[in-house]
Amino acid sequence: MKTLLLLSLALAGFVSINAQTAGAKPAPATESEDTAKLSREAVRLYKAAKYDEAVTVAKQAIEAREKELGPNHLLVAQAWRNLAYIELGLSKQKDASKAFDKAFDIYEKNQPLAPADEKIFAELLEAVAVYDAVDSQVDKAEKRLLRAVEIRERLNGANAAETSSPLLHLAEVYEAAGDYEKAEPLLSRVLAIRTQKTGKLGSDPDQVYESLSCTLTKLGRDSEAMQLQDKYRPGEREDNDSKKDVKTVHGGVVNGMALRLPKPPYPPAAREVRAQGRVDVKVLIDETGKVIFACATNGAKQLQRSSEVAAYMSKFSPTLLQGTPVKVSGIISYNYVP
Predict the structure, then answer these.
(1) 52: buried, middle or exposed (CB in 10 Å: 19+, 13-18, 0-12)?
(2) DSSP 3-state helix, strand, coil percentages of the chain (rounded to 5)?
(3) How far does the chain reach from its first CA to its final CA, in angstroms?
(4) CA distances from 101 to 8, 95, 276 (A)
(5) Residue 316: enclosing H or E segment and its boundaries?
(6) Is the distance from CB of 295 to CB of 279 less than 8 angstroms?
(7) Residue range(s) of every CATH 3.30.2420.10 domain in the chain
(8) HSE-CB of 2 using CA atoms within 13 angstroms
(9) Which of 232, 236, 260, 258 is closest to 248 using CA atoms?
(10) Which long-range contacts does 224-233 make (Cβ < 8 Å, 24+ apart)?
(11) Residue range 204-246, pLDDT digits in tens
(12) pLDDT at 178
């Protein structure tokens, strides 16, 4: 669960950090220009991917804003939020979690919020919920994500792209917990939202499609999975060479193509029943060689989740088609011996 959810958070594409929050409640004293400069500099360094320098400046901005505005002002919360994303850039998950919590707590203390601030609060609900789920606090994560959905629906609309974000995170929480019955309708809704304008898949919804297809397969609803494929990928069974504009190639079994192929752990639950044998994991590899989707399609259920986690940790060389990097779909096979 930890690997899948933190990967999702890192790739979520939340609102970019900003130097000032639109709609923030008036400060009891005007923020000084020196403090404002610190915040702007932290953002500049973050956008330049100079995370080590950005961390130092972001912490200085927090200290300055707390001194000038008090510890519970929304601009202080925004400074903590900025720091959280910088820590994510450094892959410091624990530090990022603490910073998200700080920002979240301040927003809670300032309820009710102006609409502009509610949008940021919905984002923070998603972020802290992901870490709740990582800590196996699934009920807490579920409540926070449902709250984020309610805010997004009220502010942006039920079919808005912004609403699809907490819906997708909630589905991921359910998937990680093995509750595919709850995940399926959420994934269906997200896919509908993200394809409503064109009726077709773009590059971003591909993972949603893969997740929904995987979930339907795990639920034994193979005919619905085939209908999904016919609707969104009607030419998937064709030979890639027959297509003029190929964005994803099919690589078959890709074990031998891996630069890094970690061996999955043998889960205690599997050990108890002496589960063994082969598990095939359908993967989608992006243009950089990173596994961005993994779905175990067969094998003992006790072995499937560990296989998926191992697949996400694998690394491949980029695949080029006529000199252009493309995604690759394929199968990673694992063999478990108790």
Answers:
(1) exposed
(2) 55, 15, 30
(3) 23
(4) 18, 10, 41
(5) strand 315-316
(6) no
(7) 246-336
(8) 4
(9) 236
(10) 232/191, 232/195, 232/200, 232/201, 233/201, 233/209
(11) 557 798 889 989 988 989 899 999 988 988 765 444 444 445 5
(12) 82
C-alpha 227/C-alpha 163 separation (Å) is: 25
Q: Map residue 5 onto helix, strand or coil.
A: helix
| Residue 290 DSSP class | B
**Quick one: fold of 2-133?**
1.25.40
The CATH code of domain 246-336 reads: 3.30.2420.10
pLDDT > 80? residue 3:
no
Yes or no: say if 124 and 100 are a contact pair by the CB < 8 Å rule. yes
DSSP 282: E
Q: Which amino acid is at 234?
A: P
Sign (positive/negative) of CA torsion 19, 151, 187, 218?
positive
When the pLDDT of each residue in the chain is averaged and rounded to a whole number, the result is 86
Closest of 219, 135, 231 to residue 179, by C-alpha: 219
Tell me the mean pLDDT in the region 184-195.
Answer: 96
What are the start and end residues of each CATH 1.25.40.10 domain in the chain? Answer: 2-133
| Token pair for 56 | 């130092």
pLDDT at 248 over 60: yes
Amino acid at 285: I
